């Protein structure tokens, strides 16, 4: 037996081999200590008793260790089964490629070989995780964002990378560009937000109804801490659009001259000197009501080509920015329109950036050119469509000349070269507005007119309109 050697270790007593290998017998005394040999001394009996007690204690400890190991195995097996069952439950909805899982701790027996996907070393005896089709030391299964071990009951993934649920939300759950909070989920548990088609701006749907201001030029909702200029007619203008805004009639005259030269370059010179006036929203709406025949882009009219004699209130001096970012001290002046030809004036809404003001002016100048050249009364989609085509052409010429202005020595080209990056972005946005307009008159009219001009050229298209009142097919 295992404890027999312990009994005799260190004893001076010797047992003869012949006696130790005595013949087997069937009687019950065979397994008892023999008394037919030498007699044990009292000290030797005490040594034997202590040795037996020590061996029994070690045997009990060994059995206890075995029982503890069996208990640990049973505990790990139960945990693994519970986690495996939880993986069969449908995961909560995530955003993007994110999914939520439960890490699976598994007991790793001796003799098997697994390589940790985190540290690329062999996993020894003990627990390991089986996640994302790989094996991990528990301390090596770390969040891709914060690089801390994932010990939570659930984790999220993006691609093949694990994340804490909180880290995943911070990195992948969209935040509102206005209030900077996480965009909330709707009653169905889905993330719902609004996005501007050009600026790729995301914001909570509630901001469309909670009074959050929107720039009258670029149409953006900007962060709450961003300042706006409150114009006298109720419009809001963001500070970036304000940088190139044209605020009064005299300030717009150089732009008017540039667009007249642009028309001359198209062989469409406007011989009559048509007054150009910058006005407030109310004056523009009143002038629209007084015009008998006109085409208006609803819901906001930003330019008019007038043919009737009227009294117009024009912006004579640009306002200054007062307390609370409000435009104050703006001076207006009445202006009487006298009919000397088929066009009495061109009105443009004040306070818009230069490129937007120019595109509106190029559009209204086309109305004036058609009337002054004696074109028949055209169908709305044809007249507005060709006017939008010319406005789009002017924007393209401004943006292309600005990109190549660095190689030019002219002062005007140099001014364009110094145009801020945001202003060029604004020009692209105004082009996008014309191209993506969904209205049957302005949008469909522009696309039909642009197709005709690209196919036949501007002059041939205008000649066909003169003859037939329609775009060439």
TrEMBL record:
SMART domains: LIM (SM00132), UIM (SM00726). InterPro entries: DA1-like, DA1-like_dom, UIM_dom, Znf_LIM. GO terms for biological process: regulation of DNA endoreduplication. Residues 114-174 form the LIM zinc-binding domain. One of its GO terms (molecular function) is metal ion binding. It comes from the Eukaryota. Keywords: LIM domain, Metal-binding, Repeat, Ubl conjugation, Zinc. SUPFAM superfamilies: Glucocorticoid receptor-like (DNA-binding domain). The keyword Zinc applies. This is LIM zinc-binding domain-containing protein. It comes from Acacia crassicarpa.
